[in-house]
Amino acid sequence: MNDATVYANRREANRALPLSWAERRQRIYLFLVIAAVLVLTAVISVYGWDYYILDLAQRPFSAKHPDLKPSGLIGLRLGMLGFFLFILVYLYPLRKHWLFLGRIGKTKNWFDFHMLMGLVAPVIVTFHAAFKIHGFAGMAYWTMLGLVASGIVGRYFYAQIPRNISSAEMSLKEMQELKASLLDELNRQNILKLPEIERLFRLPDAADVQRMPVLRALIQMIALDIIRPFRVWALRRKGAGFRQKVGTMGGIIRTGNCELERAVSLASRQAALSKRILYLSKTQRVFHLWHIVHRPFSISFAIFVIIHITVVAWLGYF
Fold this sequence. Notes:
Blueprint: H1 3-16, H2 21-52, H3 65-68, H4 73-95, H5 99-102, H6 107-128, H7 135-159, H8 172-188, H9 194-200, H10 206-211, H11 214-239, H12 242-247, H13 258-278, H14 280-314
């Protein structure tokens, strides 16, 4: 049994096992952060709606202006919260250089919070700015949004490069072996026929992909990811009976047939892996270029924040 087969079997076994306490705790923490942000956003939106919809010239006459303006009682505290959240965002890249942080927790858990804080902080900062985006603060704000957009794009390309259980990037040989292992499992199941699966998840020719420009290849890759769920639903319909087709809304909802769902899952994973192997060279190239683009956004925003806080402190808003 090769390493890829061992890896595939181990991953399948891990999926069947109940979550460990550490994993459950991680999910609880993420859920609590999301819930807290949603509640805070809802409360501030409801309380400040009639203020935020006012023209900038009319806001100083609002009774809520002393609280909701950026230097107000609430606005200033939102700015402090946003700053604290961005400190948490920057701890993830610093973890690679500070050994004491590297010994705390798992990289995956740090990355999950890094992504979550990167999405939450801009929401808090938007309310801190009272939706007043212009001047120096506007430059910092749009840099922040550029940083967030860059992070989301980078997360997508990161997910396109297969990794093993230890989060190390797999070699092309390991990917091919894992693909062969998944195909072997698909051959052994008796629910769905392999020719039908291959026809449904047909991919472009490898030589054509290698010749096409990077941008076109990326658009094609994203399009394949978008249409894959529709192909999965079609595959589920092929293996389901009439009543199951109706009960699953045409294959959208999972059936109660464990063997069918396992076959559909195997086919979907194999198709996703095949697509990632096909576009691997393009993805790796873009991912390396992404680091070059993402870093200036990160450094620029950090400089803007430092200048902003320095000026605010110098003017005596604290």
